[in-house]
Amino acid sequence: MDSITQAALGATVAGAIAGKQCNGKVLLAGAALGTLPDLDVVLDYGDAVSNTIKHRGFSHSLLVLPPFAFLISWLYCRVKPDHFWTLARVFFLTVSVLITHTLLDAMTTYGTQLLWPFVGYFEFRNIFIIDPLYTLPLLIAIGVAIFSKKRGGRWCQSVVLISTLYLVWGFAAQQVISHRVEENLTAQNIPNRQVLITPTPFNTLLWRVVVVGDGQYWEGLASVLDGDKRIDFVSRPLGAWPLNETPATLQGLRLFSHDFLTVREEADSLIVSDLRMGMANYLSFEFVFAQRNEKGEWELLEATERHARDQGIGGGTFEAIWQRLKGDQSIDANLQRVKLSYNQ
After folding, report:
1. Fewest CB within 10 angstroms: 38, 44, 174, 322, which?
2. The model's pTM
């Protein structure tokens, strides 16, 4: 999730655990702890692909965070002993904030290495990386907690429950769309062995569907509020890796993306794109892996990130998303030509 949401979640979780002891210092500590796992973005792993696929690694691991939380708690209690904030209470607050951060990240589409150092990316795709309906209640609870010492802890506890229920709703909406997707794939004779269902920006009503088959993939939109349950899929080529040699970075990208990848040639460059984040021809993560030489042969390069041409997201696009999520299926084709990509 975005940094504001993670800081707000950390502060709210800390306030909920503190209860009557909730105050500005507790909220600030929670916000700081809530942003701590994302500081791994300052690390350089050597190339653009590695920097992408190794983010949310060790700093988000459920095997690393508990001992790290204990270390922080022990140091805090050594420096500032307190009769209320015992080691057990400080540890419970610290580990809760850190783990809720990584679990929330795992609910987006990016992929989180929950069991690092063991290989594997987990993503449940039930919430977009920026969702005001999730973040706003957290900010309200923090505001109440700052200005009301008596009610701050209770507000934080209530909002933690509300935000959790919103995530549950995201799972439920995803399952509704999943059932509808299965029916459409069967009716339209489209293979269903590799299917992605993920929310579009800022909501959990309108969902993007990507289906990968042999040599092509299909993309469509489905809203919980659609009257017509048919999904209009657009078919596009997947492309194929043309070189005999497969670099380690491409193997890592395949694992990271669960093989939701396309390969294409553009301006003598060989570009590999992650289909999961973005929309249609405008995807968040695209990398140049090779270039044609003077003889017309491919030469491998150190993979570099390619930024899709900036289409911008103006008021018309937001209005189109709003109309589409309400069930207006007449604008599907236009939306699928719009860039809807964000950072992780």
Report:
1. 44
2. 0.91
